[in-house]
Amino acid sequence: MKKRIPKTIEPCPIRDSIVEIQFNTTIIHPEVIFGKVMDAFSNIFPGENIKSLPILELPKQLIEKRPELKFKPHYQFKDDTFVMQIGPQVFSIGVPNHYVGWTAFYKKIEECFSKFIELKIVESIKRLGIRYISFYEQNFIGIDNFDIFKHIDLEYSLPDIERTKKEMHIRTLLVNGQYSSNLRVLNNVAMNDQVGSIIDIDTSCTNSINVDLRGLLDAINNGHDEEKYIIFNLLKQEFIDKLNPKYED
Question: What's the pLDDT band for 10 if we cut at 50, 70, 90?
Fold first, then answer.
């Protein structure tokens, strides 16, 4: 029987979420891109909420000589809920800390990507990424010494070694059509001065993605659906039932 996917759960363990595009552009000088973005988003993210990121402390010559750095953000725009970042060939919007739900997040995604696409900076999209990181502290929902591996449908075996297993980190790549998802499951790890378990799913698409807004938003929605499919098929149903799931009618 096909597993039902909840619309929401409570408490929500999501601690970080981000939607990012890496792109090609015909604009040679990154300063032109940054200027366009700052002007376009000044009414959404006022100047006092814009900051340069540590990468700009590197020598300009070094940044230009290392191709991978063009996909690193140089500036961050922030309000009380969302963080937007821009680099020479990367643009993202995310929700750090407390997740606001897909409806509110998608509304901000649509607003920001609409403005960005209108700037005619993007010639083509190299990669679309959607990443969600969920953190389960050690007393999550009142369970002492919470260990995520006890609450997921993941089979593994180890030899009968007379040793205590203190930490476990598992990583795998899941592929579904044009979407690839890097799945990581970890226990006994620290996040923001807390110790607990993490499920980290980074879903990406590198196939041809239309630069037009509708095509991009469709690809983002499909990537988000892939993330939800993976996480809720990974979690055991009896664990989901403890999270007050709400389903579509």
Answer: very high
Exposure string for 187-222, b = 16+ CB within 10 A, e = fewer: bbeebeeeebbbbbbbbbbeeebeeeeeebbebbeb
Rounded to a whole number of angstroms, the CA Rg of the chain reads 20
Asked whether 198 and 190 are in contact (CB, 8 A), the reply is: no
Pair of tokens at residue 178: 């044009």
Mean pLDDT of 116-127: 95
User: Considering the chain, what percentage of its residues have pLDDT values greater than 90?
Assistant: 77
Q: What is the mean pLDDT of the chain?
A: 92
Gap between the Cα atoms of 231 and 201, Å rounded:
8
How far apart are alpha carbons 209 and 122 in whole angstroms? 12
The CA angle 198-204-210, to the nearest 5 degrees, is 150
Which residue in 93, 98, 132, 128 sits closest to 206, CA to CA? 128
pLDDT for 165 equals 66
Q: Is the dihedral of CA 51, 122, 35, 57 positive or negative?
A: positive
Judge if the upstream peptide bond of residue 54 is cis by omega within 30 degrees of 0. no
Across the chain, the runs of DSSP E, i.e. the strands, are 14-24, 50-52, 75-78, 83-87, 90-96, 124-137, 169-176, 179-191, 194-205
Predicted local confidence at residue 162, as pLDDT: 62
Contacts of 149 (CB under 8 A, 6+ apart): 168, 185, 187, 197
